[in-house]
Write the structure tokens for this entry.
Amino acid sequence: MADSPIISPTMGRVHLSQEGQIAIITLDNPPVNSSNDAVRRGILAALDKIDTQQCRAVVLMGKGSNLMAGADLRELEHEPTEPTLPQVTAALSAFPLPVIAVICGHTLGGGLELALACDSRIATPTAQLGLPEVTVGVIPGAGGTQRLPRAVGLPKALEMIVSGKPITALEAHKVGLVDELLHATEGEASDTEAFDQVLAYANRYQGGKQPLAERDVPPADEQALQAQVNKLLARARGLPAAPVAAEVVMKAATLSFSAAIAEERAQFLALRGSESAQALRYLFFAEREKPFEPTQPVKAAPVSRISVVGAGTMGSGIALCALKAGYSVDLLELNDKALEAGVARITQTLDEDVKRQRLTQAQRDRALSRLNPTQHLPDVAGSDLVIEAIVEDLAIKRSLFAELAKWVSESTLLASNTSYLDIDQIAAGIPHPERALGLHFFSPADRMPLMEIVRCQTTSEQTLSTAVSVARWLKKKAIVVANSWGFVGNRLYAAYRRQCEFMLEEGASPEQIDAALETYGFAMGPFKVADMSGLDIAWKMRQQTADTRHLRRYVGIPDLICEAGRLGRKTGSGYYRYDDTMRPTPDPAVAQIIERYREEHAITPKAFNEHDIQQRAVLALINEALLLLEESVCQRPADIDIALVNGYGFPRWRGGPLFIAQQMSGGELASALDKLADVSGKGHQRANRQDF
């Protein structure tokens, strides 16, 4: 049987060929062999063409680095078309010859469901297997919730499906999901060697048909399973499909395969059009778009060595992030004790990663071998990128930039990690100002996914392209923003916090506001966040702008809290009281401070309900987001949603403030913004832009 394409190249191809008695179906839908209706038709057409008298087995594999990296999520925006993926998995399961799936690369979602419908699974050692559907608002819809428990048992199936996290091929082999691991191959002949291994396995395969649909689910302790479900759902907070996934997986133990598979499909179809699923898909695509498109083709400059100036919490976190990404890192700190503490933080975190099996001991050792702690500024001379993470003082940062420019080459990028300061002023006067920019990390820098790449007036497009490339290696969700106070994230959060303080003044309590917004889906309420960060930082900033308070509505309650010595967790009290466990407890002393303030300002407190609080907070974010677009601080509306979701705890399954605004009619949005302006008082700037 010659290699014959079943589907045209313009829509994704499926090839059918034969090697001896082995029929080979190859998915060829670049770049990741995602499932679409053309590929599904091609698989069924290939099965139909196989001569079951001449062949003893079928191999299902993918061209390139993946078997199938999952479904084409854009299909979820429309009604399902036939053949559906469940029809394909049913056909693979029912095919008279044994079908062997070759798992490689990222075999996720529908790709793993295809493999589960086969009779045997073999994998490359570096493959990743998973059913991540809950992360885009749905559940597996082609048998995954029922076949996986029959392959690996309910506990492992629950863990994989409810969390959505993939596992390695090594673990998959250990738990019985993969029958055999292919030997690792290198060099130009690797593809041929791997294919020879696949053929050898297929030719010696004696297992016959082994459809998972006909297997019993291994018994498990019900009480232990329920405890596991509760734990998984607590971790999956913010994934609305997770409870549904757990419920459907558990049905594998109580329903017949056919009944459970029908329930799975019904729940999948019900979830696919939900607002949370739409929001999660929106973010999925937004986060995969390029954050910056140059006006002319430019090539990112190579970066292999990064210097970080400042070994405090932020500086050591940035250095750790770069080490994990494979960069050589100079950590520069003039204070010897601070440098020692920074290196200790890096070492401790790497050791914890080894303990938790996030890294091997060898990976940890290699990372530390690339770290060069130093107290000598000239040591940065050979760096491709220098990131300053020192104290937030304009004069000090400006002096540092001038010194750095003396030692590094004219092509070395100079970046500031400032949160609020004007980077154009920081970089003023340095030679080759086109290499200056902001790289705003979020704490803890090695774990928080957001990075703001700040474009100064002089920043070149090559510098931005290089920064985007570095961000990708650092595994950051990067957005490109203009040099402006607070950039995008901090400015949005300031508007959100300010509106919450307005409600505090008007009659709501800190715990009431926090509870309402946590119920809405925020990771933590604003007053708990303030206590965690420390109230003195914002207090000092307010003191620096005291002469402009008359221009806007000003709430003095936060100042009174600080004046009472309540600076947050670090002092044992802030908006809440804290014991040794650092658990926040409402404090009557805070209620008294707020009550006295209202009396002194003749404010009659009004009642707030949960919905009132949520609406005002979210509308404040929408209004500020629209102002950012009006002022061209960022170009893509989605960047604002990416920032809030990845840096500020906004509920991912709600999409972000501009996603929410897009679901509103023009009249509805205008009316809501008018009401927000009415309650916000003096100094509030109402956004006008609605075309986004």
Observations:
- Confidence is low (pLDDT under 50) at residues 7-11.
- The chain is about 45% helix and 15% strand.
- The first strand starts at residue 4 and ends at 5.
